[in-house]
Structure formats: C-alpha cells, structure tokens
Amino acid sequence: xxxxxxxxxxxxxxxxxxxxxxxxxxxxxxxxxxxxxxxxxxxxxxxxxxxxxxxxxxxxxxxxxxxxxxxxxxxxxxxxxxxxxxxxxx
Length: 90
Fold this sequence. Notes:
The chain contains 3 helices and no strands. The chain is mostly helical. The chain is elongated, with a radius of gyration of 17 Å.
C-alpha cells in the first residue's frame, strides 16, 4: 500500500477504472454469446437485433476507452461473419 496521498488516490482510481472496463468487456462477451445463440436458432429478426446491439455496444466501448479500436474491429468482423453464415473458430 502506498504511503503517499496522491498514490493512494491513484490506487483508488485504478480500481474503479478496472471495474468499469471489466463491465464493458463482460457485456461485450455476453452480447456475442447471445448473437451466437440467435444465429444457431436461425431466427433472422432476432439475429439482426442482436447484431445491431453488439455493434452499438462495441462502438460505445471504444469511445469510452474501455476497448482498443483494433480489438473492436476484429470482434465486429467476427460478428459480421457469424451473421453472414460463416462459422469461425471462436
């Protein structure tokens, strides 16, 4: 534990930021799982809705700085391939 006041504050801030970033990452994974389930069920309307929801969430994650733009680009491409009918290894 730091013994300098500013460093104590940085530890608190880092913990808070870590929790916020964890929320963005976890929700993105959940939305991707829901998209996969919708694709597996074959429901086109549900798939479209889930895909739009995932893309919107990923774009917000980039704008908040929680995820890197290349990571989001890769995940959006994976989702698009999934919706198009191609199965990837993930």
